[in-house]
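Table S7 (text form). Paired inputs.
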Amino acid sequence: MNGVAQAIRDSIDVQAEVPEPGAASGTKVLAASTVGSSLVFFSGSVISVAVPAIRSGLHFSAADVQWTLNAELLPLAAVSMTGGALGDRYGRRDVFLAGGTLFLFASLLAGFADGLATMLSARFLQGLAEALILPNGLTIVGQAYSLDKKSRAIGIWSGSIAVISAVGPAIAGILLDHIDWRVAFFINAPLAVLGILMTWFWVPRDSARKSGSIDFGAAILSAGALGCLGWSLTEASNRGGLSPTVIAGFAFCIVALILLARLERRRGDNAMLPSTLFGSRTLMGINLYTALLYGAFAVLLTMIPYTMIRGSGMPARVAGAAFIPLQILMAAISPLAPVVCARIGHRAPLAIGPSSRQPDAPLCCGSRLDWATGRAIFPRSW
């Protein structure tokens, strides 16, 4: 589960939305949102196992692999808030359906890719689709439940997605050992079709809540800033240091951020990033906390399977199964988290959670990833 996605989930969770009159059965809405939203996390967990096969099948360099991953993350990070605004403007159900349909198309396009250009285009479309799916999928759940039941529904949503995300890499690993890398994208199709059908029949059409223009300028500038930053960091890593082109990339990033700040100040309360958001210490703190915690977690989920397969020669099915204990634990604990927080508050769980992961790091760093110690990966994935 990547850090941006989790940040979106946490930020939406704190909003207190009132269920709309005449809403469909909460259980059906929750099921439809869970299946549709799980596309993002399911695909991410599968790709982490499939990266070595994709690199070998398309003869990618290390930089090509980095951009294959970044091409999805950049639009997801830059356009997520715009995706939420589109849901407010045109209806969250319709935007959620549009995201699922676009994700299905992008997955098929990636599966048929024959080179870097097609792959990057497909991954970029996947990121755009995820930016439509995540903010609207979870808000749909919020509309179907009253405030006192919403936390439990979000816990069930998180736990169910963790289970689906655990199954994906295990199945994909087996298929990758016997077929090829394309199955990592084609495997998304059945889940996408199921999510689209469930949303179409079970989620009621909601009316637009807001009017006014969408802040597309901010989305473009933020995407440009993130793109320049990602490109510069990738190039600096590949070239072993700074170069004129890398420095130019950082300069363009700074210019885009300055223009973004000026644009948002001019738009005031209609901005994608209103200045009032930065005045809340709690909101800024929780966003920074989430970015640091789940950013590191996303790196872990990407690097461990890659190291197991490329560095130690383990089959993809072993790498895919290595994270099953982690996902099972998340699925078991997520529904209980709201109950714990209601009794002891939020600060203690937020402090205990990341602290409990610290002893794990030296254990993983000190282990050899070979068959003799491969079994130790399972408990250490927790």
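Next pair, protein 2 of 2.
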Amino acid sequence: MIGRSGPPLCDQIQVTPGYYRGAAANRDIPHGSAELRCIDEETLMLSRRTLMGAGAGGLVLLALNGRRPGVAATAAQTFELTHSEDEWRKLLTADQFAVLRRSGTERPFTSPLLHEKRKGTFACAGCALDLFSSDTKYDSKTGWPSFWAPIENAVGTTEDKSFGMIRTAVHCHRCGGHLGHVFKDGPRPTGLRYCMNGVAMTFKAAAA
């Protein structure tokens, strides 16, 4: 680290356990102005060449001031269920808020829903809208709960240009909460992989 006085360097800022820190080493972050972000391992692999040396201890650390493009695009839309930021913070856990309202990404292989094999429905943790049926869930080997199709009219998508690449972000159709991303490398019949954050969802088991 480069020694200096003044505002703390980014890696001195405390972040939620289980999340990647969203700040680059040796970059000054003023008090109260930094929004820490996390990135999934796919982003780390895709961005390796441009991000080499950005972090310490094997982690690539990025800084984003303000909202991610995907968040801004979703915020511009009107949804059936809305709350103020303060209301969302009261309704959600810190981890749920970081993902659903700030487009964060949980660490891979940390969600209990990754291993959920019962029949049932995966719903939005923000508004309880049913999003995915267990019939479309499969093991993508990525570390995040994955599905080859959502329930009809349950999700929407926006273009996400964060981290120097173009991806398709997925959000809840009712409340606009960020769920994850969809990729074109999934199984039949759709060929799609809805790579979702488990913390952004709840599971409702089917009646026996």
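The CA atoms of residues 32 and 82 lie 26 Å apart.
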